[in-house]
């Protein structure tokens, strides 16, 4: 019974984790009328790009939750296997008792009476038989408890596996949905003039600035680890924005930051919201090169501060990685990871 209680306690937390890791449902795209002017078209494209940024982060969050569910399912399967192995360990002892004729306990008592030379001998033999019966009954109780624990663990494993599979299916559906919206957005963006495209991009993610000298940025880094992060990030300037990608051919915003930090041996989750909760909060006036800067509420965009009021980031859909001012629309805070 103690093993049964332990198993239930162990999996109560796992069940709560599964409940909290329900699949994220993407917010619907805002339906709007067809644009009636160039300015209206520009406004609608800007709004759509912001929606896509939010959806991008929702999918990243869903991906993290699916990974958690898969870990819970794997742990549940391992516990179930251990519980079944515990039951199997009783098999040799059960076979031994079966072969010893314990099932004929009443016949053994008669035989003890008939073959004993004295009353004391009868008592001694029957006491021994009682001890054997008691021990065997205790063994069967243990086996029953172990079997119950194994069944409970297997049920937990099956439920966790089913939920992880369902969440993965939902995530794949969401990714396909967002990709379709991205394709539609890029088609709308291409219909704008070059000046309108530049205005939309600047409004969303700041105007691109000339990238500073990498050697100068590295020289101002507070540590060698930060220097490697800055060098890696600046080396990606000009590469395309690719939704859901962490490189090396293209990046989205949290993909770029996680890629750059990996060069210093630091693993960041591929999620701007998750990154905005790591490390220590840093006031705008105390920013240092290498700090993660994040935008909007809820957080849906990140970049890497490189000093002198500038950051490098994968800006937005259809635009390459670039250096811009850190002081732009939606600035919400910064975190120091190193």
UniProtKB/TrEMBL annotation:
<keyword id="KW-0732">Signal</keyword>
<keyword id="KW-0788">Thiol protease</keyword>
<dbReference type="InterPro" id="IPR000064">
    <property type="entry name" value="NLP_P60_dom"/>
</dbReference>
<dbReference type="GO" id="GO:0006508">
    <property type="term" value="P:proteolysis"/>
</dbReference>
<dbReference type="GO" id="GO:0008234">
    <property type="term" value="F:cysteine-type peptidase activity"/>
</dbReference>
<dbReference type="Pfam" id="PF00877">
    <property type="entry name" value="NLPC_P60"/>
</dbReference>
<feature type="coiled-coil region">
    <location>
        <begin position="143"/>
        <end position="188"/>
    </location>
</feature>
<feature type="domain" description="NlpC/P60">
    <location>
        <begin position="223"/>
        <end position="338"/>
    </location>
</feature>
<dbReference type="InterPro" id="IPR051202">
    <property type="entry name" value="Peptidase_C40"/>
</dbReference>
<keyword id="KW-0378">Hydrolase</keyword>
<protein>
    <submittedName>
        <fullName>Cell wall-associated hydrolase, NlpC family</fullName>
    </submittedName>
</protein>
<comment type="similarity">
    <text>Belongs to the peptidase C40 family.</text>
</comment>
<keyword id="KW-0175">Coiled coil</keyword>
<keyword id="KW-0645">Protease</keyword>
<dbReference type="InterPro" id="IPR038765">
    <property type="entry name" value="Papain-like_cys_pep_sf"/>
</dbReference>
<feature type="signal peptide">
    <location>
        <begin position="1"/>
        <end position="33"/>
    </location>
</feature>
């Amino acid at each position: 019974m103690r093993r049964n209680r332990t198993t239930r306690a162990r999996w109560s937390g796992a069940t709560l984790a599964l409940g909290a890791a329900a699949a994220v449902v993407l917010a619907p795209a805002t339906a709007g009328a067809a644009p009636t002017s160039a300015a209206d078209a520009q406004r609608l494209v800007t709004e759509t790009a912001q929606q896509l940024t939010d959806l991008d982060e929702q999918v990243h969050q869903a991906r993290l939750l699916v990974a958690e569910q898969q870990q819970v399912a794997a742990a549940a399967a391992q516990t179930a296997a251990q519980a079944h192995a515990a039951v199997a360990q009783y098999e040799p002892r059960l076979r031994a008792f079966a072969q010893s004729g314990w099932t004929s306990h009443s016949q053994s008592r008669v035989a003890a009476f008939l073959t004993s030379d004295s009353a004391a001998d009868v008592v001694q033999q029957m006491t021994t038989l009682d001890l054997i019966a008691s021990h065997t009954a205790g063994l069967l109780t243990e086996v029953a408890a172990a079997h119950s624990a194994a069944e409970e663990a297997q049920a937990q494993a099956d439920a966790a596996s089913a939920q992880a599979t369902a969440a993965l299916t939902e995530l794949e559906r969401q990714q396909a949905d967002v990709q379709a919206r991205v394709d539609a957005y890029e088609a709308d963006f291409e219909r704008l003039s070059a000046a309108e495209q530049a205005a939309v991009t600047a409004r969303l993610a700041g105007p691109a600035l000339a990238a500073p000298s990498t050697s100068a940025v590295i020289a101002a880094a507070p540590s060698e680890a930060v220097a490697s992060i800055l060098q890696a990030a600046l080396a990606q300037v000009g590469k395309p924005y690719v939704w859901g990608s962490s490189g090396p051919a293209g990046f989205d915003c949290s993909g770029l930051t996680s890629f750059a930090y990996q060069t210093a041996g630091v693993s960041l989750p591929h999620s701007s919201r998750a990154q905005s909760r790591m490390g220590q909060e840093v006031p705008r006036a105390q920013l240092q090169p290498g700090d993660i800067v994040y935008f909007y509420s809820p957080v849906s965009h990140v970049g890497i501060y490189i000093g002198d009021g500038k950051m490098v980031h994968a800006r937005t859909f259809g635009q390459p990685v670039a250096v811009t001012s850190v002081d732009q629309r939606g600035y919400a805070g910064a975190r120091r990871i190193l």
